[in-house]
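Below sits the subject:

***
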Amino acid sequence: MDESTKQIAERFQCKYRVFERGTDPKQVEEAYRDAYAAGQKEGFFPAVVLLDEYVVEWLNEVAAGEYDRDQIIANCKDNGKEILEERFAEYTDDFDEEAFAEFIGNETTGDALDQFIGYMSFNDGMLEADTLLLFVPVKNPWEIVAYVPLGGWNECPAADDMIAICKYWYEKYKAVPASFTHDVMEFYAPCGINGVDSLEAAKEHYAFCMDRVDQGTRTYKLSELAMGLAESEVWYFWWD
């Protein structure tokens, strides 16, 4: 294990497990699911963090600043739904009726996700950097975002908006923030979309991350994403 990995892991001030670069990602997946089950009884939520160079640099900057984790949690608001509605309206503001219908589409199939993929190397499928499995001592899963303060770049929501959205999604879908890289965030959603209309869920995903449709589908249609979400227990978001 790299010494910087140990130093960063200990800053989180919670139990952790390290998976070294080059490890089979299946080991992380299995460990996360075991930890998730254990956490339901023991009072914690797990989170996976890929320590690539960008994450290491960012976390070092956070540590050197005046980041207040407890204040972020205390300031969490019940406005996640409103934030998503505003973002969706902003991103579709230029669409006329015809363009909006074209964007929605009428796709009947989509890719379902049942495993985390954000920390996998595109070259060999292994872990592309040392990876932490954190056992985060929080009562509420949305508070994980305060422990892992990644976000606020490009169109990715800042920490205060992110935590509000995660709170809303847990209450609505039972989805929890689970896996983090410098540009990817994945949720574990064991209840899927929890009986919610798949197109409604897809609109919220697009509002959270436009690239989920614009670069993450074959047809660039919201309905393709919706069809995949109907069968998914992992939600994937990538901000270019």
